[in-house]
Amino acid sequence: MAFIASAFKALCLSLLFVVAASRPTMRPKVFNVRRHGSKPDGKTDNANAFTSVWRRACTRISGSSKIYVPKGTFYLGGVEFVGPCKNPIEFVIDGTLLAPANPRDIKQDTWINFRYINNLSISGSGTLDGQEKHSWPLNDCHKNTNCPKLAMTMGFAFVNNSRIKDITSLNSKMGHFNFFSVHHFNITGVTITAPGDSPNTDGIKMGSCSNIHISNTHIGTGDDCIAILSGTTNLDISNVECGPGHGISVGSLGKNKDEKDVKDLTVRDTVFNGTSDGIRIKTWESSASKILVSNFVYENIHMIDVGKPINIDQKYCPHPPCEHEQKGESHVQIQDIKLKNIYGTSKNKVAVNLQCSKSFPCKNVELIDINLKHNGVEDGPSTAVCENINGSIRGKMVPQHCLD
Questions:
Q1: pTM of structure
Q2: What is d(CA 202, CA 228) in angstroms, rounded to the nearest whole number?
Q3: Of these four, 90, 183, 262, 384, which has the most CB atoms within 10 Å of its CB?
Q4: Which is the catalytic residue, given 183, 246, 302, 324?
Q5: What is the H or E stretch that residue 292 is in?
Q6: What is the CB neighbour count within 10 angstroms for residue 381?
Q7: Which residues contact 385 (CB under 8 A, 6 or more apart)?
Q8: Which residues form the active site (predicted)?
Q9: How far apart, in whole angstroms, are the C-alpha atoms of residue 173 and residue 112?
């Protein structure tokens, strides 16, 4: 009798497993923006139609949602997509989103903004076209403190456990992608493009973020390919092509009060091609805040005709004369930095520039297998400059090292 009961129980469990396995996987509900009033004619403002679709997808209770932008050109004024949402959302862009040509028609800091969202996925073969050429002549911020504020292309604030994949951002008015207080976010397969002389068009800019992964991405801009600002930790960058642009920059730091430490950065298997800088850490003199920059690893980095391949600059002053210039040393402490297998060519004779703070000298900077040759003929071989730095050398060192 016990045997029969056991066999019956096993049969019931098997039937339950078969039934469960045979149930179709619940697919997300698809919201095609064209079926909800959007027009791909390149001139009708679709901002209201897009936000209406977002609200329906975001508030949907029974399962995840997918917002789909098909091929075509969708003109879009400034728009915000705000959570929290009931379930995960996919935003698939296969068409072109077209920004207003006149920057004054965007009444916010960011053209397309996502806020307070978890489990967001943005992907597709589409393009974010910032229509920059009307905006760049207005950008005179290097000489005018009252310069007009231009909009970033796409922003993420308080967005967690999310990703962006395969999208192209073209010719932003200001920066391309901006991240603030974002945690656990993957960026992969993204293409970011603007001319090398376009002002302030940072590729990816982030502050107060953690656990960000950037991989297999091409960035060519008129400013930093990636800008890493106050409070960012646990950032992993790999297989990135940077150029044109100003390199991968930490900072600038120390100008404002209440800035936070920047820690745990890894940059590996990356190429800098024709950039003004490659590896760059920049802090202001006479810093307003005392913070720590630590635990950085740069490994397997190829420099091709880079202006300053390795550049630690603790006397940062982009447009002299600077307010902080000649008023004291930087209070930003840089320590525990490893640079390994950095190779290629430098446009300038000084290929390694390590200018640290006299008040807070750089500590534990490791140079391992550095091979950076000057591509100029008349000025002679590449050189290194060191100020206020403590560190060590291992393996090959071109240029000849200047560490004590």
A1: 0.91
A2: 11
A3: 262
A4: 246
A5: strand 292-306
A6: 12
A7: 350, 352, 353, 354, 355, 402
A8: 246
A9: 12
Within 13 A of 225's CA, how many CA atoms are on the CB side? 30
Joined together, the tokens standing for residue 171 give: 């010719």
Return the number of other C-beta atoms located less than 10 Å from residue 371's C-beta: 17
**Range from 112-121, 377-386, 387-396 carrying the lowest mean pLDDT:** 377-386
* 302 contacts 333 by C-beta, under 8 angstroms: no
Q: Please, which residues have CB within 8 angstroms of residue 48's CB and are 6 or more apart in sequence?
A: none
Mean pLDDT across 97-106: 93
Using the CB atoms, write b or e for 4-38: b if 16+ within 10 Å.
eeeeeeeeeeeeeeeeeeeeeeeebeebebbeeeb
- Please say if the pLDDT value at position 166 is more than 50: yes
**Residue 401 appears among annotated catalytic residues:** no
Residue 403 in contact with residue 375, Cβ under 8 Å?
A: no
DSSP state of 2: H
